[in-house]
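Before the break, one more example. Copy the sequence into your notebook; we will annotate it together after we see the structure.
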Amino acid sequence: MRLLLVEDDRNLNRQVAAALSDAGYAVDKAYDGEEGQFLGETEPYDAVILDLGLPGIDGVSVLTNWRRAGRKMPVLILTARDRWSDKVQGFDAGADDYVAKPFHMEELLARIRALLRRSTGHATSELVAGSVRLDTRSGRVSVNGTPVKLTSHEYRLLSYLMHHSGRIVSRGELTEHLYDQDFDRDSNTIEVFVGRLRKKLGVDLIQTVRGLGYLVEAGPKAEA
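Here is what the structure looks like once it is written out:
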């Protein structure tokens, strides 16, 4: 999953980006409204964390412009403003959630997980496909109850496919959503990661649909 973080406080930006990376996300960073708006308009993000008090273009204007341009990615507003009127303005502009500073990092991560879960049609933090379970809270993966250790890129790939189970995902889409903008992207590496995942999981989970991409069949819903 690929996220955009738009926050002008460089120390906070660095801390949040590090926490998101540690949680298994690819993260692009912007430090002002103009750069953030441009990235949000031109890159395919799974979710955005957007500060309201940005230099250049304020966060509400950025969000309004995204929504007018038809950008539908989930957006969580992150701001020091805690007046109810600011919250209403943010939601009316198209925000999906709101966190006021100061905040606990675990709460922010939980809200991002919830946004991603809802946007892909999942009810709980645990994704299930066949005998494979992926817990988005802990980042743990198991097959028939046995833990499977994955690298960060393998986890990102499996997580994206399981979040989008039931539909074919192209290599191009995977390349766009697994790596940040500074990564040297090569869609051929996706085949390598898929091969490694299949070997580690040891089950027939990831299907290759020739000429189209990869498919993980939708499994039963995990219990809350």
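The chain has two domains: 2-119, 126-216. The chain has eight helices and eleven strands. Try to locate both features in your own notes.
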